[in-house]
Structures are given as C-alpha cells and as structure tokens.
Amino acid sequence: MNRVPDDGLVLVPGGSLLTRTSEEGRALALTLARHTIHTIQPDLDVLKGGRPDYSTNPDSLIAAAHVVAVEFGTIAAANDYWRD
Fold it and tell me: Over the chain, what is the mean pLDDT?
C-alpha cells in the first residue's frame, strides 16, 4: 500500500488550534481537512484514484469547502476571533 506518511496522519498539527492571524487560521483549517481525509483513507493510490470523480463534481467540491469552513469556525472560536 502506498500509505500517507505518519506526519500526514496527525489530526491537529502542533497540538494546538491557536494561530496568530485569521490567514494562518484558514491555512490550518485546510491542513486539518487534508489530515482528516488522509486518516480516513490513508492509501494514496485509492485516494488519488477517486480524484478524477470528485475533483470535477460540484457537489463534492462544495462538500469539501463546507468541511474547511467548519474547521475554520472551530479555529476562529478557539482564537476568540483573533483578539487584539
């Protein structure tokens, strides 16, 4: 099996949701979403094999964007919406 490396299976990189800026928070949300998918499907060949289907399906792309938005909302709340 062409497996995701162990560092790609860490669900919260660095062990914290705290970021300095909202831009960093958004980047973390994307990373968390990717790590979640890699944890669910660690076989890269299987994961990449499905890409032609979901990468051109509007419903799949909207669902992926929703996952990132939910992660970002959690990160924003953890950061008190980037206090002063």
Answer: 92
DSSP for residue 43: B
Secondary structure letter of residue 80 according to DSSP = T
Cα distances from 17 to residues 22, 42, 57, in angstroms, run 11, 23, 30
CA 50 to chain centre: 17
Q: Which tokens go with 44?
A: 């890269």
Pick left, alpha or beta for residue 14 (phi over 0 → left; psi -120 to 50 → alpha; otherwise beta).
left
- The CA-atom distances, in angstroms, between 54 and each of 34, 39, 48, 50, 51 are 14, 18, 10, 7, 5
Question: Which stretches in the chain have pLDDT values below 70?
Answer: 84
